[in-house]
Design goal:
The chain is α/β, with parallel strands linked by helices and 236 residues long. The chain has five helices and nine strands; from the N terminus they run E-H-E-H-E-H-E-H-E-H-E-E-E-E. Strand 5, helix 5 and strand 6 form a beta-alpha-beta unit. About 7% of the residues have low confidence.
């Protein structure tokens, strides 16, 4: 087992001969041409998969991330361990910003994929207490998927770092968060998800401009007085 206790999985579409500079050709063939590059074979060969504490998923795609995510999930499912010791899940989505469709994927068209992938990742890494959600640009698909994934951890998550607005499908508050960093850009009037303030030690809210209020931190909705008894770092 490597000294590092993390496992990095890189996924992307293969370059087709003769189409190296043709993004439309990539988009057409994206669902059939997925490469998963990972150190998983080495980790599994030495029986060290159960020692992995951090999983990093880096996904490169043109406009549809779900074939890549499903390939990653399938590959992880081939390993004879249950991943219950993973504490940190780090996901980075990298759409090709040069492709005309990369920002216009429809959440409605991928609603089933969002549920399937978000739920599969959450169930696979069911004990995670830290989420880092990043990418090269904000887009509706990433926002919806990350919101679905985050919503599974409201009762256990201690750290949440996201360059995307976190939008949950339910109204359950995060109850154990200690360190939070969320970007609010991309959704006018966006408010962060509800979270208990008693455990918060560090809070960073970027890009909220004039839309931000403290209602997300007020259990009764009255944001005139909000207490953060353990907070040592604040950036708004």
């Amino acid at each position: 087992m490597p000294h590092d206790d993390s496992l990095t999985i890189r996924c992307g579409i293969r370059k087709l001969p003769g189409y190296e500079n043709n993004l439309d050709a990539y988009a057409v063939s994206e669902s059939e041409n997925v490469d998963v590059a990972t150190s998983l074979n080495l980790v599994d060969d030495v029986g060290g998969a159960d020692a992995v504490r951090r999983v990093v998923i880096e996904l490169n795609y043109v406009s549809n991330p779900f074939p890549g995510f499903k390939a990653v999930i399938d590959r992880l499912g081939e390993v004879a361990c249950n991943w219950e010791k993973v504490q940190t899940l780090d996901v980075e989505m990298r759409p090709d910003i040069g492709h005309s469709n990369s920002h216009h994927a429809s959440v409605a068209d991928h609603a089933t994929d969002i549920i399937e992938v978000g739920d599969a990742l959450a169930m696979m890494f069911s004990e995670a207490s830290k989420l880092k959600l990043s990418g090269t640009c904000v887009n509706p698909i990433a926002t919806a998927l990350y919101g679905r994934l985050s919503g599974w951890y409201t009762d256990q998550l201690q750290e949440l770092c996201s360059i995307y607005p976190v939008v949950l499908a339910h109204d359950r508050p995060f109850t154990q968060l200690r360190n939070v960093s969320i970007q609010g850009e991309g959704i006018p009037g966006y408010q962060p998800p509800h979270m208990a303030t008693g455990s918060l030690e560090s809070l960073t809210l970027d890009g909220f401009y004039n839309y931000h209020s403290w209602a997300s931190f007020a259990p009764d909705g009255d944001s005139r007085i909000v207490e953060f008894p353990k907070l040592t770092g604040l950036s708004v």
